[in-house]
Amino acid sequence: MRRRGLLPWLLAVAACERVVDLDVDEGPRRLVIEARLERVIGRVSGNQSITLTTTAPYFSDAPPPPATGAVVQVTDDEGTIVTFTESEPGRYTTSQLVVRVGATYRLTILWEGQTFEAEEAAQSVAPIDSLYFERPKPGRFSGTEGLRATIDLTEPAGKGDFYLWDQFIDGSRVLGPDSTFKYRMIAQDEAVDGLRITGFQPYEGIDIPIGSTVIMRQVGLSERMFRYYFAFSDQVSADGSPFAVPPASVRGNVSNLTSPDRFPLGYFFAAEVAEKTATRLPE
Q1: d(Cα 276, Cα 126) in Å, to the nearest integer?
Q2: Core vs surface per residue 239-277: b (16+ CB within 10 A) or e
Q3: Which residues are CB-neighbours of 251 under 8 A, at least 6 positions away?
Q4: Which of 6, 130, 227, 276 to pair with 168, CA 20 to 30 A apart?
Q5: If we measure between CA atoms, which residue out of 205, 197, 64, 187 comes closest to residue 141?
Q6: 266's torsion region: left (phi>0), alpha (psi -120 to 50) or beta?
Q7: What is the Cα–Cα distance from 92 to 242, expressed in whole angstroms?
Q8: pTM, entire model
Q9: Per-domain boundaries in the chain
Q10: Residues 91-113: pLDDT tens digits?
Q11: Do 263 and 249 contact (CB within 8 A), yes or no?
Q12: Cα(first)–Cα(last) distance of the chain, in Å?
């Protein structure tokens, strides 16, 4: 499928505007998978959600089209199969899947005559001991004004732990102060294995307004998912300079068993999640 678009380009040489008509090869439509099975520490629940969409035309401003009519199942290492129900277009849910840390889960999706599959073990995570608000650390790029969401935790001994942090402010996920830093905050324990960590600000560039409620979520990742998010962040933060990472599709861990060359985008993983909530009060 090809789409013709009009892009205005300002040409400094002639001090005028020229319209360039471009042919953009859209490529094949691909399935996009957002599948994270969670077990929140202290709040065990069987409620899980998987979102399926498709890639959209290059010039489209509309939300990604939902992938409807799929059969979505998750099988654990004891042979238990849970089938997800399409509760709204492209959103598949269940209330019957309680994640067990260390258990292996296999995702199977049947959609438009194709079979997609992925397998991941549920990773554990260290608890967040406390969530509070402090000024930015000196010498950082995040400025000196305002207060930042700050956490303390104890990193478990034994290298090989990988982390992802999600920060929600008044119910909305907030990743960064501008387009340059809109990536997911991840880390591995290589430099802090077994240490007590205090005053850590996962999203140090974000000022928390007075009266706002913050939810900080600390997610345990496998090494494979850590590398996926690392590659994804490289793509999102690329600035177009000669030293930037070349643009490319970030391949996740889901395979297309029917047509291997038409691999889907997105990811599947299972994880334990540590969560803390705090409200910033006036100083």
Answers
A1: 12
A2: eeeeeeeeeeebebbbebeeeeeeebbbbbbbbbbbbbe
A3: 263, 265
A4: 227
A5: 205
A6: left
A7: 42
A8: 0.82
A9: 130-221
A10: 999 999 999 999 999 999 999 99
A11: no
A12: 57
